[in-house]
């Protein structure tokens, strides 16, 4: 993607502080209004409070915007008909002058074009629960593997196939760190039963491995999975029961493709009596804190 095709907000273009990119699918399709808008604005404040500059990404009227204003975030979160754009949908949204929220993968592509090195989301899309039969592997994964951006998340969304996702990331040369834990998290819950093999306890270590990857001339990104603090996480059995119920309902209703993730998120919310949404809000804020610290650590390094 060419950087001259982006609308970079002046406060992002002129930023003296390191920039952290944020996505908008979580706003338009991942959470209900108005908590979606409130959360997006709070996440921006958290990034700013940690000494970094937040830049929420999205497409409005066909323009790819790096650094949505508060009013633009509100549009994203409340207007009907906002597309969910993964990377392949960006040209369509631009050519047709559409409003589109960008997924993690699309955000990573835009961040790379804008020269932003750190991207924060809630949970990435990954190898789907029936991938061996329906080939549903999120376009988030090849973006993480292909662009020089560090993605900070709470793991893959809980209904993904975590084991297969970690295998995919290894095949595609993505270093995967787990933050302060030996286990890869399960989005709303702290433990998935899988290890990534690399535990980190500080932002400098993440930054130094990314810097080494750049100096070695190796393309692509790095994934950091941050488990929620115990007090805010859902017990693993609550998450697993809700996933099971939600997947059954999706199957019965024949939900497929890009509609699946928003459907499952909202069913899981119903099945947990709203607790999953609370965890989702807590985890994105937690990830923002970690992402801003990594951006600050990177900011003091010389990166090729
Ligand atoms: N994280 C959340 N909620 C979300 C998403 C991430 O906490 O809704 C979005 C991201 O934009 C991610 C997308 O890219 O879900 C994945 O969709 P799919 O599984 O269809 O690729
Ligand atoms: Mn998918």
UniProtKB/TrEMBL annotation:
Identify the GO cellular component terms for this protein: cytoplasm
Q: What is the lineage of its organism?
A: Bacteria, Pseudomonadati, Acidobacteriota, Terriglobia, Bryobacterales
Q: Where is the active site?
A: 23 (proton donor), 157 (nucleophile)
UniProt KW Lyase keyword: yes
Function of this protein? Catalyzes the reversible cleavage of pseudouridine 5'-phosphate (PsiMP) to ribose 5-phosphate and uracil. Functions biologically in the cleavage direction, as part of a pseudouridine degradation pathway.
Q: What is the name listed in the Swiss-Prot or TrEMBL entry for this protein? A: Pseudouridine-5'-phosphate glycosidase
Instruction: Indicate which residues the UniProt annotation says bind substrate.
Output: 84, 104, 138-140
A family per Pfam: Indigoidine_A
- InterPro entries the UniProt entry points to: Indigdn_synthA-like, PsuG
């Amino acid at each position: 993607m060419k950087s001259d095709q982006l609308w970079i907000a002046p406060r992002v273009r002129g930023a003296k502080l390191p920039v952290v990119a944020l996505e908008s699918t979580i706003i338009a399709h991942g959470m209900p209004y108005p908590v979606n808008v409130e959360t997006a604005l709070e996440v921006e404040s958290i990034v700013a409070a940690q000494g970094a500059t937040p830049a929420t990404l999205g497409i409005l009227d066909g323009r790819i915007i790096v650094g949505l204003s508060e009013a633009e975030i509100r549009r994203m979160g409340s207007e009907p008909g906002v597309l969910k754009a993964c990377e392949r949908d960006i040209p369509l949204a631009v050519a047709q002058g559409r409003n589109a929220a960008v997924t993690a993968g699309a955000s990573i592509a835009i961040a790379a074009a804008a020269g932003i090195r750190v991207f924060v989301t809630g949970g990435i899309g990954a190898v789907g629960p029936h991938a061996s039969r329906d080939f549903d592997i999120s376009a988030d994964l090849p973006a993480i593997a292909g662009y020089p951006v560090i993605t900070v998340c709470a793991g893959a969304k809980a209904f993904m196939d975590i084991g297969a996702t970690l295998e995919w990331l290894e095949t595609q040369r993505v270093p995967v760190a787990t933050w302060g834990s030996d286990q890869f998290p399960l989005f709303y819950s702290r433990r998935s039963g899988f290890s990534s093999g690399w535990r980190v306890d500080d932002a400098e270590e993440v930054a130094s491995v990314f810097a080494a990857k750049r100096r070695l001339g190796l393309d692509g990104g790095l994934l950091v999975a941050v488990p929620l603090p115990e007090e805010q996480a859902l017990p693993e059995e609550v998450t697993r029961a809700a996933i099971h119920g939600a997947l059954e309902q999706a199957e019965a209703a024949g939900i497929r493709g890009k509609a699946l993730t928003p459907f499952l998120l909202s069913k899981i919310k119903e099945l947990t009596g709203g607790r999953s949404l609370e965890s989702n809000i807590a985890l994105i804020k937690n990830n923002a804190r970690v992402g801003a610290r990594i951006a600050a650590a990177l900011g003091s390094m010389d990166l090729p």
